[in-house]
Amino acid sequence: MAEAQYTTTAQLPREVIWDFVKDLDxxxxxxxxxxxxxxxxxxxxxxxxxxxxxAMTRTLKFRVTITEWNGPxxxxxxxQGLNEAMTGEGSFAMQAWEDAGDVAxxxxxxxxAKKSLLARAxxxxxxxxxxxxxxxxxxxxxxxxxxxxxxxRIEFRLRVDPGGPMAPMINAxxxxxxxxxxxxxxxxxxxxxxxxxxxx
Length: 200
Known about the structure:
Number of strands: 7
Structural class: alpha+beta
Distance between the termini: 37 Å
Strand content: 35-45%
Oligomer: single chain
Radius of gyration: 17 Å
C-alpha cells in the first residue's frame, strides 16, 4: 500500500475553491501524468494517467467512483484499475479557518511530528527529481501563510494498493513518489485558483 497526505492553505474562501473543484473537468489536468478522462455519470468517470517509474513507463486506466460529495467540505472517492490490478481511495477536504473553532489555537498547534532524518532526506531527493521532471508548480507568495480570515485549509489524501504478482515491487517504487504526487496536484490547483482570483 502506498499512501500520501498533503495539507496546504489557500488565501481564498472555501466556497471559491468549492465552486472550482465541484466540476471535475476544471481540475482533472492538474494530476501528474494526466492523459484524459471521461465522465460516465455524476459519480463515475474513467481516467488515463501515464506513470514514469524509473525505467518503467505505464499507462494506467482506472475508474473513479465518488463515494461522498459533501460540498463545500469534502469529496471522497475510490479507484479501481482497469488495465492493472490496483485499488485505492482518497479524499479532498477543505476547512475554512474560521470554521475550525479557535484560530489562535490552530496556529499554536504547530507542525506535525518530524520524520526521521533518513525519511526526510529520501523525501527531499524524490521531491527534487519529481520537480526536475515535472516542474515546480507556481504558488502565490502567501501560500501556506497559516490561519487567517478568508483562508482555507486543504487536505489531499490518496492511497493506492497495487495488486498481482508485481505488487511488492510496484508498491516499493511508488511509495516514495506519492507525497510529491499529492504536493504537485495541490500546488497546481491552489496556484491556479490564487492566480485566477488575483492572490499573486
